[in-house]
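Note to self: keep these together.
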Amino acid sequence: MQVKDYMAREVVTIKPEMSAKEAFALMKSMRIRHLVVVKEGMVMGVVTDRDLRRPQVADVFKSWDQLYRLSDEFDVEDVMTSPVKTIDATADIREAAKIMVERKIGALPVTDAHHGLAGILTETDVLRALIDQR
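Structure:
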């Protein structure tokens, strides 16, 4: 079973200069937890709903109340996970699962033979592969 058989091919991408507030609103409106950050066609990082609550972001706020009212002063590049681990579309799904478990991440951007963004593989996709394995 290869990654390409289970990945989502339609990936929501954003630019690093997008505000964290806009990114969070996009995640909420699309009901997703991961956004791939792309600049000039290259994968720069991933931003997740969890990234918006990391201590380095939370430390600048005086109360938890403010944390959930992100201002436009933080850009995605300030909170994204970078460098980002990617996986080739032809890789075995078990290899992807191993990387996700070892790195404690919920998604992997998937690249094609030319190192371009081909999709995204999430924990849910890996679980679907496990179910199909029967």
